[in-house]
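It would be a great kindness if you could assist me with a short task in structural biology. I am sending you one protein, given as its amino acid sequence and as whole-number tokens for its backbone shapes. I would ask you to consider whether the tokens describe a fold that such a sequence might reasonably adopt. The full record is reproduced below for your convenience.
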Amino acid sequence: MLAMRLVKLTEAHSGELCRDLTEQIVISERTSDFRRIPAEELRLAASEVYRNLGEWLLQKTESDIEARFRTVATRRAAEGIRLHQFVWALVLSRDRLWHFLRRQSFADNVVALYGELELQRLLNQFFDRAIYYAVLGYEEAGGCSPKGDLAKVRDLAVSIGLMSDTDLNSGSAS
């Protein structure tokens, strides 16, 4: 089956894919927060998915994906990686992988084309879940909040006595 051949090909070329992805994450302005993470650590993180793609797509459960990506997201939040940049890094991971697979595939019949489409569905399902659980991990870590920066500053000012609740209601500071 073409889909399994492509998964095995991805696993075999995981080193190249990881290097390309790490380079892309480091140079992209959309993932500039990752520049403070050592390149080797980024490469190892990408390697975990690419090197074991078949396992992630076919054997790991949703609970496995949840546990892994909540943990990674919590760590990245603690490292100061903003949520939108973390999500973009996951999108880059998927896009780089799909670009590689499109270069390698050559569906020449309906069955092979169906295998490619099934692989694309599995990849999208995996990355959609990874993003969902990463966002949950960020929320749990306090890395994102519906409260804006101004509201956080106001809360801090009240907590240390620079402002009172009445100042907040009247819109003036003392």
Q: What stands out?
A: The mean pLDDT is 82.
